[in-house]
Amino acid sequence: MHQSPDDLDRTDPEGAIAAAAKRCSNWGRWGADDVLGTMNFLDDAKRVEGAALVRRGASFSLSQSFDTDGPQKGWRRRTNPVHTMTDTGTDAERGVQGFPHGIGGADDVIAMPLQCSTQWDGLGHIFDHGFAWNGRRAGDVVTSLGDSVTGIETVASLIAGRGVLLDVGRAVGTDGELPDGFAITHQHLEATIAAQGESSRVGRGDLVVVRTGRLTRARRDIAEGRGWGDYAGGDAPGLSFTTAGWLHGTEIAGIATDTWGFEVRPNEFDVAFQPLHQVAIPNIGLFIGEMWDLDALAADCAEDGRYDFWLTAAPLPVTGAVGSPVNPIAVK
């Protein structure tokens, strides 16, 4: 059963979240010990199906850059990456590296929050009333040592299969973009699928990427000298809270957007913070990707009329991490 935004009591986020969590819960679906959530839907057969979609060999990186010019502004200590060289060409020229027979080299180090740019949210990232994925107590899952149960490394070998682009920005937006605050409903998602055709059907085990055009707009602002503005954490188009039933019912393995926060901002309740996350991650067990760069892929899909592709998007297997940087590669 799908909700409409008109069905929401915007004064009662607690009630709406509780009802959606109960309606969409996958707790126990794959047993009490499960650590994979919706990645259980992405099986070997689905990977074979995805691999068969490669025809031209055209490949697209869906990652933003990881550098000091990124969108982060320090909220909750989320900063842009700091990249430092530890060995350089200058060192090599001056012979201070201590290597024999003229060989020299360069090395570097990077310091960054794991969710500062293109990334996956892991199952230990969000809790619902103190409970993590599959009904575990949050404190039994994530401690100061990290996520000892559903750390992002548990899916490091799994996130590769059939990718599907839903270019909602082009299908229902203006000039390929949705305005900030635009709540994408299941009707918008289904209308996009209908407009794009059979190659954008969505079902069990798929990895869905939703383009809103928000990153396109941010890039235009940067080019015109206005900078990133409030791309990180500010108003943005995104999925409506009412899509929880669609996300659950389609049995997709993961979903990612070109926005900072995946769901519409401002959120749809009078007082709320990321309520769709609160249902999707700890209750559905859904993997959510954010800040993906979908523009080049979207242009190619619009040109050839094919919206599905092989997608590999393995997280860095950082032991115990609740999220991870990723460089997703789509191949058509």
Automatic annotation (TrEMBL):
Q: Does the keyword Cell membrane apply?
A: no
Which residue ranges does the record annotate as region Disordered? 64-93
Q: Which is an annotated GO molecular function term of this record?
A: hydrolase activity
Q: Which SUPFAM superfamilies match?
A: Putative cyclase
Indicate the enzyme's highest-level EC class. hydrolase
At the top level, the lineage of the source is: Bacteria
Keywords attached to this Swiss-Prot or TrEMBL record, sorted alphabetically, are:
Hydrolase
Question: EC number(s) on record?
Answer: 3.5.-.-
By its UniProt entry, which PANTHER family does this protein fall under?
CYCLASE, PTHR34861
User: What is the protein's name according to its record?
Assistant: Cyclase family protein
> Which organism's genome codes for this protein?
Blastococcus brunescens
